[in-house]
Write a structure and sequence with these properties.
8-stranded mixed β-barrel
Length: 392
Amino acid sequence: MNCLLTRVPVYHGDGGLYAYEIKYRRLEGSESSGSGGFFGVDLQRVCGGAKALVELSRDLIKNGVLAGFSADNVVAVISGRDILSDRDAVEACRDLKRKGYSFALDDFKRGRGFEEMLELCDIVMLDFVNPLTAQESAAYICGFTNKSILAKSISSRGNFENAKRIGCSYVQGDFFLKPQRDLRNLQPLPISIAKAMKIMSKPESDVDEITEVLSQDTAVCQKILRLINSAYFGVTNKISSIGQAIIVLGLDYLREWIYMLAIQHISQNENSELMRLALITAKFCRMLAGEIPGAKNDTEAFYLMGLMSVLVFSNDRLLTSALAELPLTDEIKNGILRKSGLYGDVFGMAVDFCMGKWEHFSALAAALGIDPLKAADMFVAAIEESDRVDFG
């Protein structure tokens, strides 16, 4: 790869995945050429078959970068002010539009020239950091001109409800990473999960005891078996029992899914993309740890730490309660809390990369001697592995 990039889910208003917005940073001296050469990787590897929303400047539009991607798989995000300042860029957009490419307008403002941009675009992106009155005015124009609306920066249920009320077709924001239920009365883990985690935290786990505990909880069994029967494992014959899962896959994989169900319960969020992000972060943490002399002998601990990453999107109370309930080592807990030390640095590096916080990531990577482009390759590999899991 020749740049750092991550993906951010964009949802349909009803909650299903619509696309991934690609956040990226080109590194100094990197080259771009050919189909996918702009990133050095096929975007379909990053998006798993979903559409990609990619922000492109007027210079990139004029240089023909978009032609390197399939019109069916990419939506170009453009700035009206940027494009309008260059007539050649406007004409390049018109030509691409005739060839079937789609555009999303990121900074719509009423005024001279923007009617032309509105004509070119298919989607108007509205930032919900701005006053609601501005969104309502823009939504009226979009409805009149038959343009779809993507609501950005949705940070609360109020934002989400307002976005649906004014007719936004697509939504995106931190709200979808947060707990979706009332946390004033945090429910304890299901007994089967709590017991299984306690057993598996011992140096020598009793397989028969784990099987018995989990088999008594039909709902938990069904969830685990659905995950295990994903294409991720490539099993040829369907696994139909926990005992069979342990025999075929081993305790390490079972432990992975038990912890996944635990954090899903604690985070109070059924969003499958959030669970997928946890798995990506876990795999990424393990790969990063493998590059660090002081961590490569304990990569599974870093994997487990990454799996807990969804908890950082919760409030401090939930995070503290969750860490108290889970049988984690002090090193892992300190890492999740991003305290100083190797675990905190690796966790911070992985989470910052996932969130597109490139400055923070680069500083930590430099301190730990991690090649940023190698990390980018590892991140794409983590995405590809995680996209094979069926979260239901």
